[in-house]
Amino acid sequence: MPISGSMNTGPILAFVDCEIDASAGAGGGSGHVQAHGRREVVISGKRVKTVDVHAHCIVPEAAQLINHSLEAPGLLWSNIGDRLAQMDQTGVDVQALSINPYWYRAEHDAVAELIRVQNEALAEFCASQQDRFIAFATAALQYPDLAAEQVEQAVKTLGFRGIGVGGSVAGEELANPKFHPFWAKCEELGVLVFMHPLGTRELEPSGRLAGNGLLTNTIGNPLETTIALSHLIFEGTLDRFPGLKICASHGGGFLPSYANRSDAVITTFPDRVGPLPKKKPTEYIRGGQLYFDSIMFTGEGMRHLIAEAGIDHVVLGTDYPFPWNTAPVDHVMSIPGLSDEDRIKILGGTAAKLLGIEG
Predict the structure, then answer these.
(1) Between 192 and 73, whose confidence is greater?
(2) How far apart are the C-alpha atoms of 64 and 275, rounded to whole Å?
(3) How many domains does the chain have?
(4) What is the distance between the alpha carbons of residues 270 and 256, in angstroms, rounded to a whole number?
(5) Quick one: the chain helix, strand, coil %, rounded to 5?
(6) pLDDT tens-digit map of 115-147
(7) Has residue 2 been placed in a domain?
(8) Residue range 166-174: average pLDDT?
(9) In 154-276, where do the E strands start and end?
(10) pLDDT value of position 201
(11) Under 8 Å between Cβ of 236 and 276
(12) Strand (E) positions, 224-328?
């Protein structure tokens, strides 16, 4: 995605000699570490450009506009050296940067300025590192008409090819008709929407996610994605905007693994489903609108996700700087039963097409 943009000051952003066999015994893949330490992924003799669609950052000067804390130090752009070193070590060529929305409750004027500062800073940073970074633009979804304007400005003026959203907006579902102007603009401009959950905070007061295990994240994050996607299907949003392309983080939450229950509810409780979607829920997962990242932890988990979603709808994700997937290339190479072509698609081929990244 060619991103261009200029600002009067430089961007201040924050992040929180051998050959390596990357194939783990699978067909013909290898990773090479260059003299300066950058691992290159080669499959069947072909250099593969790898694209990580799930990598976090934050823009401090934007966060300060509403007194938002800077969270994990690894999100800071000041740690760019650490980020590049991790990318080089693990074989990630390009990161698609995203910011978890923390501004959905901010007032109109403040959030309008926040998004302006944030998108311009992202654009300028990526323009200075075009071979390593692209970014998902941000938008103030709590004001859907404003969000639609921000999407248009981000795409047409700053050159973004993707937009990031949360899994809900201040407690409201993304399938709420009030958000149709935003979805319509994303469909019109053909941008990829990257969905990252904000957790199921409405459950937290009950105490059900308290205790050990960080369940607010471990369960709460994939659960919110599951809920969000289910509403987009059953409330007809995906039918209304058939050109939408949404990439759901964390493998789409729990939905791809249990979507057949969503098919079954249509016949089990037909009077409780509401207006039927045009297709079975599993057909949306296997169709052309939904994509899923590779944060599935095991080769078998990935094999199952691919079986449910299709090879053309699974893309590489790491969740950097949070160490959920610290060996992303080896993770993909460990998936049983894939061809070299399949692995190339997951590692970067599909994401490059979606985000307009040149080979």
Answers:
(1) 192
(2) 44
(3) 1
(4) 22
(5) 45, 15, 40
(6) 999 999 999 999 999 999 999 999 999 999 999
(7) no
(8) 96
(9) 162-166, 192-196, 245-248
(10) 87
(11) no
(12) 245-248, 290-293, 314-315
In degrees rounded to 5, what are phi and psi of residue 46? -110, 125
Tens digit of each residue's pLDDT (9 = 90 or more) over 67-96: 998 776 667 767 889 999 999 999 999 999
Phi, psi dihedral angles at 330 (to 5 degrees) = -60, -35
Q: Integer distance in angstroms from the first to the last C-alpha of the chain?
A: 11
- Rounded Cα distance, 274 and 281, in Å: 14
| pTM of structure | 0.90
Give yes or no for a contact between 215 and 266, defined as CB atoms under 8 angstroms apart.
Answer: no
Instruction: Name 194's bridge partners.
Output: 164, 247
pLDDT, tens digit, 9 for 90 and up, residues 48-68: 999 999 999 999 999 999 999
Instruction: Look at residue 319 and tell me if it is in a domain.
Output: yes
Domain of residue 313 covers 19-355
**Domain assignment present for 166:** yes
pLDDT above 70 covers a percentage of the chain that reads 88
pLDDT of residue 14: 55
> What's the chain's length in residues?
359
CATH of the domain at 299: 3.20.20.140
Which residues, 6 or more positions from 102, have their beta carbon under 8 angstroms from its beta carbon?
63, 66, 68
Arithmetic mean of pLDDT over the chain: 89
What DSSP state is assigned to residue 39? E
Q: Hey, what are 107's tokens? A: 């007032």
In a domain, 32, yes or no: yes
Amino acid sitting at position 120: E
Angle between helices 144-156 and 108-128 (to 10 degrees): 20
- Nearest-5° Cα angle at 124, 121 to 130: 135
Rounded to whole angstroms, how far apart are CA atoms 322 and 52? 13
